[in-house]
């Protein structure tokens, strides 16, 4: 059953979210080689997008598993774009979670929530000298349109009330807590600087308070 939210947003009741399928998918983790994983789909996520959870063995060894909430970045995750640090961050999370067990919540909110084509438009503006936040403002987007409520819904469906969060982004932890996720610890991620993403990472640190040493 679906209900109408306060701002006209369709929201699903919390208990409507449940696991749809758990699929065994061996993956290739850069630097570690072939590792087992379980990929999970869901019923009833409030935005109806196809977000997935990737469970790395040992994730359920503790009551507060290590969790990386990763927003999709097609250019970085798949093609190794040097304009951001998403690819190395995902690979690092896969390596850490493969090593000690953990969960990667892979959220389909490309370009900090503005979408792939809009991200390209923002890149063109950045090429004219704007930083990532100014470019989003010109395109009439907020500096970060990501919504972590689905992450909370997925954790609830997985029966994980408390996590150790793998992140440098203070907003992520704050949003997850606001959506009812307990966070027992925040584990910092590495910083992956190159000549092409230096300005982007500096903007993330200075304008959004990311804990980065650039
Ligand atoms: Zn990226």
TrEMBL record:
Where's the GTP cyclohydrolase II domain? 37-188
Write the record's keywords in alphabetical order, separated by commas.
Answer: GTP-binding, Hydrolase, Metal-binding, Nucleotide-binding, Riboflavin biosynthesis, Zinc
- Give the matching CDD domains: GTP_cyclohydro2
Positions of Zn(2+) binding: 73, 84, 86
Q: Which reaction does it catalyse?
A: GTP + 4 H2O = 2,5-diamino-6-hydroxy-4-(5-phosphoribosylamino)-pyrimidine + formate + 2 phosphate + 3 H(+)
Residues holding GTP = 68-72, 89, 110-112, 132, 167, 172
Q: Name one GO molecular function term.
A: GTP cyclohydrolase II activity
The answer to whether UniProt assigns keyword Endoplasmic reticulum to this entry is no
Q: In which pathway does it act?
A: Cofactor biosynthesis; riboflavin biosynthesis; 5-amino-6-(D-ribitylamino)uracil from GTP: step 1/4
Q: Read off the InterPro entries from this record.
A: GTP_cyclohydro_II (IPR032677), RibA (IPR000926), RibA-like_sf (IPR036144)
Gene3D superfamilies named among the record's database cross-references: GTP cyclohydrolase II (3.40.50.10990)
Active site feature? 144 (proton acceptor), 146 (nucleophile)
Cofactor field: Zn(2+)
Enzyme class, broadest EC rank: hydrolase
Enzyme Commission no: 3.5.4.25
Q: What is this protein called?
A: GTP cyclohydrolase-2
């Amino acid at each position: 059953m679906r209900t109408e939210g306060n701002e006209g947003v369709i929201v699903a009741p919390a208990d409507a979210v449940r696991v749809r399928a758990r699929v065994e998918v061996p993956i290739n983790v850069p630097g570690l080689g072939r590792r087992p994983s379980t990929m999970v789909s869901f019923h009833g996520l409030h935005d109806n997008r196809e977000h997935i959870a990737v469970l790395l063995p040992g994730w359920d060894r503790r009551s507060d598993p290590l969790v990386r909430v990763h927003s999709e970045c097609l250019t970085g995750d798949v093609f190794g774009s040097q304009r951001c640090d998403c690819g190395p961050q995902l690979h690092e999370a896969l390596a850490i979670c493969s090593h000690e067990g953990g969960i990667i919540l892979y959220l389909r909110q490309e370009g900090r929530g503005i979408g792939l084509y809009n991200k390209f438009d923002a890149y063109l503006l950045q090429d004219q000298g704007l930083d990532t936040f100014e470019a989003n403002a010109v395109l009439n987007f907020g500096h970060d349109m990501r919504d972590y409520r689905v992450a909370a819904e997925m954790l609830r469906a997985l029966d994980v009330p408390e996590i150790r969060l793998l992140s440098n982004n203070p907003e992520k932890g704050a949003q997850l807590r606001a959506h009812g996720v307990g966070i027992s610890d925040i584990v910092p991620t590495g910083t992956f600087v190159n000549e092409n993403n230096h300005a982007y990472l500096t903007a993330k640190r200075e304008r959004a308070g990311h804990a980065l040493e650039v």
